[in-house]
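Worked example 3 (structure in, sequence out).
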């Protein structure tokens, strides 16, 4: 069984979405997500994953320092610059090889609801493409 960790800035959008997408793509793998900081999952992330049959409603945000690195992860993927820096600073021996996917956070403070949802769908689809290519 593979162990994969996704890390972003807040563990509210990108890393929980990526974890849910990978778990759907590779059932049976151990997939976790964390953030440099933590914030509740974004409702737009919940909505756009609902659209494809994945559930983020029960996601509990957590910080990188709350992650148990034993047993070791097969790989750790950072999704933001702050996550990339935090992973290189923490030098966890159980973090496994580190890849950086610079996925931009959607701007959910601008535009109407439909425009915001489109930005979140674009992030979801970008993550799904990256996951299908990597795994």
């Amino acid at each position: 069984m593979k162990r994969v960790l996704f890390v972003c800035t807040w563990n509210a959008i990108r890393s929980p979405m990526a974890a849910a997408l990978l778990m759907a793509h590779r059932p049976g793998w151990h997939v976790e997500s964390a953030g440099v900081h933590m914030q509740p999952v974004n409702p737009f992330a919940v909505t756009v994953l609902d659209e494809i049959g994945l559930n983020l409603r029960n996601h509990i945000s957590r910080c990188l320092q709350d992650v148990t690195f034993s047993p070791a992860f097969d790989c750790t993927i950072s999704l933001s610059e702050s996550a990339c820096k935090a992973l290189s600073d923490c030098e966890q021996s159980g973090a496994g090889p580190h890849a950086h996917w610079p996925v931009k956070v959607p701007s959910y403070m601008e535009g109407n609801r439909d425009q915001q949802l489109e930005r979140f769908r674009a992030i979801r689809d970008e993550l799904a493409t990256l996951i299908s290519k990597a795994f």
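Notes: The beta strands are 3-8, 30-35, 75-78, 98-100. The two ends are 13 Å apart (CA to CA).
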